[in-house]
């Protein structure tokens, strides 16, 4: 599939799925009786618009560099694997990197200065999934370049990952009460809204869990999965001291 087609699909999926989730938040909300939903959403969407422009600009440089590197170093692409298996493997590797990067954003005092902007939203909903500090966006772009270069991850794999992960990221930030059986089943594969609410808890020991972006596999493998919060009722955001 052409990269331009993937880019268009990402925009369409993000817009349609994000809008659908926002509507569902008004019908089957987890946290009920929230007022001023549009007033809450607009600043997050404004930040997202800025970051989209910033990320697109930086990605051009990143993908250009990766394109120039690949004739000399193919990483995992140099193993001669089946094309489909190769794509799956590279997407999995990229998701693992995103897990590591997210975990670093919580463990590094420097990185947390910017990532805390994402966690500061005490009224987490689908728009929180696109609320990030612009400096975090820039740092993420710089950090992923050597990782992608070493592994052989190119533009196609990055765009494919974005297409697959973006709907999941929007879902697990959403204020939607999924049916119990569906929530439980999905949690074996992806981070669900319940799991990610624990990650956005005001309690640091709970916020330092459930780092997965697309798959919950990495949290299970590395012992960072937490099924539920000890807080009743659950409180989201950052507790100022």
TrEMBL record:
It is found in: Membrane. The keyword Membrane applies. GO terms for cellular component: membrane. The chain crosses the membrane at residues 6-24, 45-69, 84-101, 147-170. Keywords: Membrane, Transmembrane, Transmembrane helix. Pfam families: FA_hydroxylase. PANTHER family: STEROL DESATURASE. This is Fatty acid hydroxylase family protein. It comes from Candidatus Thermochlorobacter aerophilus.
């Amino acid at each position: 599939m052409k990269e331009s087609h993937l880019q268009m699909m990402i925009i369409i999926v993000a817009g349609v799925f994000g809008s659908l989730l926002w509507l569902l938040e008004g019908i089957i909300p987890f946290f009920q009786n929230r007022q001023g939903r549009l007033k809450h959403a607009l600043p997050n969407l404004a930040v997202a618009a800025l970051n989209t422009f910033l990320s697109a600009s930086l990605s051009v440089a990143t993908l250009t560099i990766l394109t120039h590197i690949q004739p000399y170093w193919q990483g995992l692409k140099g193993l001669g694997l089946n094309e489909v298996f190769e794509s799956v493997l590279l997407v999995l590797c990229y998701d693992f990197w995103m897990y590591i990067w997210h975990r670093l954003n919580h463990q590094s005092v420097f990185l947390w200065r910017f990532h805390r902007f994402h966690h500061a939203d005490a009224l987490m909903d689908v728009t929180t999934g696109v609320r990030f500090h612009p400096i975090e966006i820039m740092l993420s772009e710089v950090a992923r370049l050597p990782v992608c270069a070493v592994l052989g991850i190119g533009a196609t794999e990055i765009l494919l990952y974005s297409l697959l992960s973006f709907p999941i990221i929007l879902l697990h930030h959403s204020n939607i009460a999924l049916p119990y059986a569906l929530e439980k089943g999905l949690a074996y594969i992806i981070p669900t809204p319940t799991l990610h609410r624990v990650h956005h808890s005001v309690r640091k020991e709970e916020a330092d869990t459930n780092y997965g972006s697309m798959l919950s596999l990495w949290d299970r493998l590395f012992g960072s999965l937490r099924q539920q919060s000890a807080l009743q009722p659950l409180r989201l955001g950052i507790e100022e001291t």
